[in-house]
Amino acid sequence: MQSNVQEDDPILTTSEVARLLGVATSTVQIWMESGAIESWKTPGGHRRTRMSLVQSLMHGDDGARSTPNPGTDKEYQPALQPGYPLGANERSRLAALASTGLVDSDPEPRFDRLVRLASIVTGSPIALISLLTSTRQWFKARVGLAAQETTRDWAFCSHAILKNELFVVEDALADDRFRNNPLVLQEPRIRFYAGVPLRDKSGQPLGTLCVIDREPRRLRAAEVQSLVDLAEIAAGEIQATGRNQRG
């Protein structure tokens, strides 16, 4: 009987799962490490899973996952003709974001405190923790802004996540990349933006901690350091979320 069960539900390698789902092997490895695909390690350190678990992922069975399905959910597949700059690792980045389960989650004091502090220490009326799917930027925490999300095409943060350091736009109306952006020409009428990428443990940039002003300006050195420090704390909280989901 045990033999029949194993034949009906064979063990799969990461490469075999990748072929079934039509994604890169590296993407499957991220999903397995994050717990998005239930798996285990062999004595040699290689990830393995069962066919039934992959089929549950493909078919979106209830209870199979508590996070979005990167294999079928359009929001977690790279846009074919994006209206924003795209990094070479976008597919893996989106898979990592999906595995956190943070997008569309409830507000949390630990993130709300960080945007309040970012607003205060930089003297900025708006501060956000922004997470970027392929179709929208969604705000896990926000102060000074009523909107919960915007289209990804408008996101200054799409540029920020491509950097390894603070990304600053001192005057959006004087910047060819942003002067015609609806968020500049209409509410909230962004003129100044500064964002720090928020990375998971593997280094994938999931979004930013950013501050916004309606007037052009510069940050002082102490304000830059404070924003970078708060972003490091926010990234740590995101990484802790991933660990909690796995264990």
Describe the structure.
Residues 59-78 are annotated as: Disordered. Pfam families: GAF (PF01590), HTH_17 (PF12728). It is a single chain. The protein is of the alpha+beta class. The chain has 2 domains: 2-65, Multidrug-efflux Transporter Regulator, Chain: A, Domain 2, CATH 1.10.1660; 109-246, GAF domain (Beta-Lactamase, 2-Layer Sandwich), CATH 3.30.450. It is 38% helix and 19% strand. It has a 6-stranded antiparallel β-sheet. The protein has a 3-stranded antiparallel β-sheet with strand order 1-3-2. α2 (14-21) packs across α3, α3 packs parallel to α5 and α6 (109-122) runs antiparallel to α9 (221-246). The chain starts with a helix and ends with a helix. The model is unreliable at 1-5 and 60-65 (pLDDT under 50).
**N-to-C SSE series?**
HEHHEEHHHEEEHEHEEH
Total number of beta strands = 9
Give the count of helical stretches.
Answer: 9
Q: What class would the helix/strand composition place it in? A: alpha+beta
Radius of gyration: 20 Å
Beta-strand portion reads 15-25%
How is the main sheet built?
Answer: 6 strands, antiparallel
Helical coverage, percent range: 25-40%
Shape: elongated
Low-confidence stretches: 1-5, 60-65
Biggest β-sheet: strands ordered side by side in the sheet: 6-5-4-9-8-7
Under CATH, the topology of the largest domain can be stated as Beta-Lactamase
Number of folding domains?
2
Distance between the termini: 31 Å
Q: Provide the residue-averaged pLDDT.
A: 87
The fourth-level CATH homologous superfamily of the largest domain is: GAF domain
Protein name: GAF domain-containing protein
Pfam family, one: HTH_17
InterPro entries: DNA-bd_dom_put_sf, GAF, GAF-like_dom_sf, HTH_17, SinI_DNA-bd
